[in-house]
Please model this.
Amino acid sequence: MLEVEMGWEDWGYEFTNDLSTRDILECLLKSVPSSIREKVTPLVAPWDARWRAATLRVAEPQWGRFRRGDARIERVPESEIAWWNFRVPKVSWSFEEDRHLYTFVDEDE
Model:
């Protein structure tokens, strides 16, 4: 998180790799009993708030577009892609040079 807040200095691949960590956490939260989920979710919320503050919303997801199906890789419907995958760092030398490739979305949409 601190790397994104201070200014992302790595390549886009590393960013998407790090995004997958939040997906794993979400998968774990969905798989545990509600009694555990109710205790852990409030611990995750401040980190999610920090993520929102340190990133900008974009139209295209940076991660989570595909998943393994029974026999092949399948495309994930956009409605099933988690919100954190639609964000890029506010401060980043690696994303800055590609900024023209992104469609930024108003936070209120």
Remarks:
- The first helix runs from residue 2 to 6.
